[in-house]
Please model this.
Amino acid sequence: MKELIIISNRHYCKLLLVLIYFLVQPLLAAQELNERVNISGFARVVGGYLDESNASYGNYSNEVSFSEQSLLAIQADLLITDTISASGQLLAHSSDERDSGIEWLYLTYEPNNSWLFKFGKLRTPFFRYTDVIDVGFSYPWISPPQQVYSGFLFSNYEGASGTYKFNFNDLNFDIEAYYGTYSGEFSRAGENIDIEVDEIKGIIFTLNRGNFSARASITQSSDFFADFPGFNEFSDILEYAGYPENAESLRFNGAATGYQASVNYDTLDYFVAAEWVKIDSELLVVPQLDSYYLTLGYNFDAFQVHITYANSDSSYNIPENLIPKYVTEELTELSFIYDGITQNLPLYTLESLTIGLRWDLKYNISAKAEVTYLSGEQDENSFFEDITNPDFDRKATLYQIGLEWVF
Amino acid sequence: MTNLIKFILVVLALQSFYANSIGIVVVANTDNTDLNIGKRQVRDIFMRSSSEFTLKPVVLKPNSEARLIFNTKVVGLTESRIQSYWAQMQFGGRKKPPIEIESPDTMLEYVKNNKNTVTYLPAHIKIPEGLTVIYRVD
Model:
């Protein structure tokens, strides 16, 4: 059954393409095609430099790089009937860490003003900007706070989502529920691991009143299958030796749950925003995380200046090591290996302050510049990568410039 | 030389705009000719955050004077922030931005020919019969 699901997942996109083709075919002959197709897109060119030679951060090192976040995406929306449309988004990314290709491919069914359904390959809407993380134009920063947006979970899923919208007492509410699966790569601390998640489910509440908005969501991912070299074998050995609890902790049988809450208030002159997220994880590959940021921005003429404070704290759900030391040589060795794995998991305490400027050159083109002061914990990863010197104090400054475009 | 004249005209136009901004009217092609709604409801229709009204918004292109006034006085957001909002909605697959039309005259034609559409126009434009003014900004 599990294999069957995995096979059907892999063919999901192809099936969807075939379905769209048959739905669209009668239209292709029609004269009015132009009116039914809408092509849009976005692009960004981002350059960054980290003033630190002992580590990198967000793939930026002490050499200026323009190839970590620069990208171009094209979206096509095709109106099939008055209530059904098909959308696809193709993305070309400059980073080696990111695949280029189809990011979104889905059918939308909007029977009326209150209901919206989507089916297909979608971006996972974990947090406020997760599903538009590539659309730099939609948020004030060049790089959203990594403490929240570093992507511990995965970027997309295949499945369905349903949204119900209603008004109550001058408040506008949206409730969205989604369900799906994921099969692909998962990156953690610069390593890519093949992963399959057979159940991703979530619910999002949003509330709007004028220029005030609030969002709260819960997402749960479970039924993992991950190809983490060495983990499965070691886990089998522990099971065989009679330590099922410790063995279990190295498998991916648990769930990871993300909680999120955010508020935002905008006026002509200024804006304030805050977001808090918590990841509760039973898996050693996903840390337990508590993160938040606060942003304050001021608009003047064609400029916006903003300041963001962000912070994070992490831990792991590690069961007590029940494997005795110094009873037998074999058990002692197993016990030390177990400690070696569980005590060297990367931790992510990081405090940061970002000051940025956005300049709207045109209504659809913005230039941005930003400086981020990073201060992590010694002995932790603190979101730094490629740490070459263990004495590195986990303090660095990231400078970025960018150009954002939507069309 | 013509460029210079154009430039002077634009500066003069902008000055007169800031000195004395024009009024706008929100006009709908609806069967409910008694419809008269509040500012927040108008805002919600144009930001597509309301499920209450089935009116489909149509807007003037950026840089038009009526749009600037509508953004400032009704939506209460800068053009940049509104564009960011639509980028998030469109590329996040949640809502599509309203259709944009170049000139008030073409706009009037469009709304006249399409039932249940709504737009905003400079107040001095003569509103033909069959369309309903649902909100005014003086």
Summary: Residues 2-28 of chain A form the longest helix (27 residues). Chain A has one domain: 2-18+41-406.
